[in-house]
Amino acid sequence: MLIIGRKRNQKIIISANIEITVLEIGRNRVRFGIQAPEDVRVHTKLQSLPEVQVDAKAEAPRPAGPGETGRRAYAAGKS
Fold first, then answer.
1. Does 77 have pLDDT greater than 70?
2. CA-to-CA distance for 52 and 45, rounded, in angstroms?
3. CA distance readout (Å), 50 to 19, 30, 46, 69
4. In whole angstroms, how far apart are CA 66 and each of 10, 29, 30, 63?
5. Domain that holds residue 55
6. Is residue 48 domain-resident?
7. Do the beta carbons of residue 71 and residue 34 sit within 8 Å?
8. Is the residue at 5 inside a domain?
9. 53: closest CA among 67, 63, 39?
10. Is residue 1 part of a domain?
11. Residue 47 and residue 70: Cα distance in Å, rounded?
12. d(CA 79, CA 59)
């Protein structure tokens, strides 16, 4: 496991076409924005909730629910 510290608005580059941006840092959570091609599937996995699959071709953006992050919550960089 690679552990990386980042501040708000800093990015992590996964490959030439995948970026993760730190959007918010709260008391007990961190919100990320994931920018990737539409054909790249983004999944999240939390210990307390079942795995959630985030569809890259999601309908209109909506606020993220518990355990949901990524493309559905931040489609095209908009919340």
1. no
2. 7
3. 25, 19, 7, 14
4. 24, 11, 13, 10
5. 11-77
6. yes
7. yes
8. no
9. 67
10. no
11. 17
12. 13
Phi, psi of 2 (to 5 degrees): -95, 125
Q: 41-67 b/e with 16+ CB inside 10 Å = b?
A: ebebeeeeeeebebebeeeeeeebeee
Give the side-chain half-sphere CA count within 13 A for 31: 15
Question: pLDDT digit string (tens) for 43-70?
Answer: 887 666 566 666 655 544 455 555 555 4
> Total structural domains in the chain?
1
Place of tokens 């953006």: 61
For residue 5, CA distances in Å to 2, 8, 11, 15, 55 come to 10, 10, 10, 18, 28
Is there a domain that residue 3 lies in? no
Asked if 8 and 24 touch (Cβ cutoff 8 Å), the reply is yes
